[in-house]
């Protein structure tokens, strides 16, 4: 930001009298206070809901010896929610900034299709036992690697060189996803019903699917990627101004974009292979956090996005588990909300 | 300037419109012949032995002929709707699958299943047609309001819109325990086509005739609202009409056959690569190529795991995705996408 700040200083200095102007993240102190209050409230809400998920309606009493194991079992789901929220919020915000477009999400890029293709081909080529055995750290690592490699190929092929074009890359990513879906649909058709059932339970996204044995690998990688993105915030601020402006400010545009997109790919693959596909969750989180954080500074948007994502996920799970008793449709309902908001945003847009 | 070059320039500057572009050219005859041969192959592809069995010829008339007719009609319908939509939106990447029309049709089907238990085919068709009309109109409304920085954003938004609608369908089908309806529907297949279950597809012939009648006006509309209005076209009414035609074709195909991805995208793009963008002289080509591709895919789908059948939409989806990407890359080379 220092380059930007000095630019603004010189621009201000050109006038008749030198005006001292700050390039601060918020327009006023009031907005800044509002931001911090909102962030705290959201974090508290998330914390409260996760406590509720852990403790509420526990079938055994507090003094029973099986109380702790029950809480531990439930804690796995909370950790999965935490990872999914962090991955989707950071990935979507960063992705929208580099693509310069606030209505697309990285989950469009075919990670889910690849995820379901990996699992379907597993059971298709190697049988049901292979799919059952296809878990643990090795399998997780393999999935994440495959997804990151695919996105690297996609980026390297379509973003570099003189024909590099971000939107073309996006569209081709989506189409590859559709094609992969058709291929795995084709394979699913040939499976026996029992194999199909086994596969189906794997493919529907849910935090209850999360395998705790992945955590020792998933959490460090996720934290690393998230921190990398966070410390890249200042660069992202400039990148979100568009290619021309960013280049003028001395940012290596292509390198920065590929760096960001690789991190996005890592985050998305972790989340997808841990809790399954969530298409509009990231979009929902990002759009809400732009409303809640009236700033363009990623150092403030990122934490807000994470707080919102975590609060939404935990509250949705808590409400649907303990108030509405609709356990199976949580992810579908979040998707639906995201979708509806997407529709309203699109119909109010003036330019893209 | 050499003499022959002047002649060339002059002949190129002649209006390509009018009688110069004949429809019944030699390549078109060959294409037509190929499709007819494909149709005959389709008639004689299948597990049931027509020549050997006693009731073989009954079977032939009950399933084989309806299936082949259905293939021809659907192929033409999907290819044409793609072409009309591309003209209307002035965007080469628009077709029923990329702007969510098919998902809307699916939602319409689901609604009909919810409101009327065990609905008839007419009811299902009406639901699908109404919803695809609404969906297409919403998308066109959005396109007209929004200033676009790149034409590539249109299919991206459209596909996301489709995903929203299908999330809605999934939610409803899960909630009302009808996921099987949607699951079955999203995989388009010609397997259940037989006498008594496909006849509504003939409505497509009417749609085709209407599109032929309006072809010139639609071409003008493809130049944009301002130019079309200057040339004396009632733009809004034409858009409404074109969308209605598209919705009827898509809705009927959705109710009878199911989802057929990418056909409307590939065919018009391939044709316009070779022949430019005159709707009237391209229409026959688009119809014939659409018929050919879908018949070929259907024959493949019946042969590939022989005693059984694969839904044709899966083959179309796979092949279509590859062709779509190739088209995009080709345009990238020629720098048309800027």
Low-confidence segments of chain B, ≥5 residues, pLDDT <50? 1-19
Number of helices of chain A: 15
What does the largest sheet of chain B look like? none
Topology order of chain B in helix (H) and strand (E) letters: HHHHHHHHHHHHHH
Structural class of chain B: mainly alpha
SS strand fraction of chain B: under 5%
Number of strands of chain B: 0
Helix proportion of chain B: over 70%
Instruction: Spell the H/E element sequence of chain A.
Output: HHHHHHHHHHHHHHH
Most residues in contact, chain pair and counts:
A-B, 42 and 49 residues
Instruction: Give the N-terminus to C-terminus distance of chain B in angstroms.
Output: 34 Å
Could you describe the largest sheet of chain A, including whether it forms a barrel? Answer: none
Roughly what percent helix of chain A? Answer: over 70%
Number of separate strands of chain A? 0
What is the average per-residue confidence, as pLDDT of chain A, rounded to a whole number? 78
Structural class of chain A: mainly alpha
Radius of gyration of chain B: 21 Å
- What is the straight-line distance between the termini of chain A? 26 Å
